[in-house]
Amino acid sequence: MWLQKNNYMFKDLFGKAMLDYVQNNQPENLITETNISEADEMDVSYLFRSFKDMPKLEQKALKLAKGSVLDVGCGAGSHALYLQEKGLNVLAIDISANAVETCKIRGVENAMQIDILQVDESEKFDTILLLMNGTGIFGRLKNIDQYLSKLKSLLTDNGQILIDSSDIIYMFDEDDDGGKWIPMYGDYYGELTFNISYKGENEEPFNWLYLDFNTLQNACIAQNLNCELILEGSNFDYLARITK
Fold first, then answer.
1. CB-hemisphere CA count at 13 Å for 84?
2. Which of 5, 30, 70, 242 is 20 to 30 A away from residue 116, measured at CA?
3. Which sequence ranges form a coiled-coil region, renumbered to this chain (predicted)?
């Protein structure tokens, strides 16, 4: 099935891998590659991990979740399932039809194929989750205001956005003075182009944004939002909480 995403067509190969896995349909590893990194294999089973196998940043976010929850980019539904089992009311959304089908097969009670920008603003949530590099869906630095404004509109007065990302400055070479050699492919070094292949098919390249905490915090200030650093990981990653 072809779907529309940010004005280009994509084959939903990531979702196909998840659906193959949950249906025991001879799943294979996903091959991912970016404009600054070589091809790497990803075992699709990683998307189906239990709470105890999740990174500490994800565990912390799930522990902080409260009230009604919107799980953005829910993937295979591992986060939604954990919170659902804890008694929280969760809406899991993804642009991937195959991911949403996977969620339903696994027992996620409320899963919907929809882009976050299309969610009705009459809906309000106490917690909005964007995990596994949640800033990725912004695509490009210039889109941050649009997404933060939308997320803000979906929050209850005392609601929170829990989002994680990584500062990928470490991936670039240093010169003798300690400065970084950064080839500029766009407006910001965290703007990457991803390529995915699965079972011999190639996905259409798509934009993905890794964001350092200071840049995220400054973008939040521009939207009259508070942004606090909750936890730092071991690989230049972090969890942030955004509130009104």
1. 19
2. 30
3. none
